[in-house]
Amino acid sequence: MCGIVGIYLKNKKLSKDLGKYLTGMMEGMATRGPDSAGFAIYSNNKKSKEYKYSICLLNDFSFSAFKKIIIKKFKKLKLKQHSDHVVITSEENPKKLLSFISSEIKDVSLVGYGKSIEIFKQVGNPRDVIKNFQLDKFSGTHAIGHTRMATESAITTNGSHPYSTGQDECLVHNGSLSNHNNLRRNLIKQGQTFGSQNDTEVAAGYISNSLSKKISLKETLVNGLKDLDGFYTFITGTKEGFAIVRDEIACKPAVIAETNDYVAIASEFQAMAHLPGVNAAKIFEPEPGVVYSWGK
Hints:
Blueprint: E1 3-9, H1 18-28, E2 36-42, E3 51-57, H2 63-73, E4 77-82, E5 85-90, H3 94-104, E6 108-114, E7 117-123, H4 126-133, E8 142-148, E9 170-177, H5 180-189, H6 199-211, H7 217-227, E10 230-237, E11 242-246, E12 255-258, E13 262-266, E14 282-284, E15 292-294
Antiparallel strand pairs: 1-8, 1-13, 2-7, 2-8, 3-5, 3-6, 4-5, 9-10, 10-11, 11-15, 12-13, 12-14
Helix pairs in contact: 5-6, 6-7
C-alpha cells in the first residue's frame, strides 16, 4: 500500500501555490506510505537553454565538498541546496556533465534531470520529508508525489519514488509488477540503465524506452497494459503534463478531481479535501485500462 498524488494547474496564476497544494496532498497520504516520500516539480522552462540536475548527496557527503569538486570542472553553473539534495542549473552539454558526475564524484546519485523537472526524495515519515525540503515554498506548473510502504526493495533513497529514467520524465506507482526482472534484462539489452532493484524503476524505464522511439505517452501506457504484468496505478509526468492509468483489474484505488483551475489525482479523496473549490469539482474514479492525460 502506497500513496500517489498529482496536480496539474490549468490556471497558471496558481503556480506560486503548487507546492502548498502538493504539501497537503502528500500529508493526506502519509498513512499509506510511512517509509519514504518523494516528489517531482515541473516548471515552465522549455525554451531555456539551461538544464537542471537533481542530485542526492549520500553517506554524509557535504554540500561544500560537492561544490568544490563540481565548480573546479564546470565554471558556468548554479547550485542550490535543498536538504541532502542539490539542484545544478547549467547550459553544459548533459552527456558531459552526467558522465563527470557518475564517474568522478563518489557518494552522490542522480535523481533526475531535464529542462523542467526537479525531483526530491528521502527515507522517513512523509511529513518530515516534506518539511526537510520545504515543499510548500515551491512553485510550478504541475507536480506528482509518492508516499511509500516498501514491498519490492529496501527502504533507501534509491528505492523511493518518483523514478526518472529519461529527460523530464518520472513515474510514481502504487502496486506491484510480477515480470519486472525479465523486463529489466530486456531493457538493459536495449541500452536502458537502472540504479535499483525496484519494480517501479523498470516501469519508468519501459516508458522512457518507448518515448525514445517517438511513441506517444498515451500509446506507451496502452501498450504497457499488455507488457507490464501485475496490478498498478501509475501517474507519469512529462514536461508537458501528466497521465494516469490503472491496470485492467484496477484493485489499486485512485480518484480524480477536475475544476477549471486544476486537475488533481490521489489514491484517496482525503488527500484533495484542502484544495480550493474541490467540493464543486468533477470527481470520478478512473476506469480500468483507460489512459487519462492532461497537457500537450
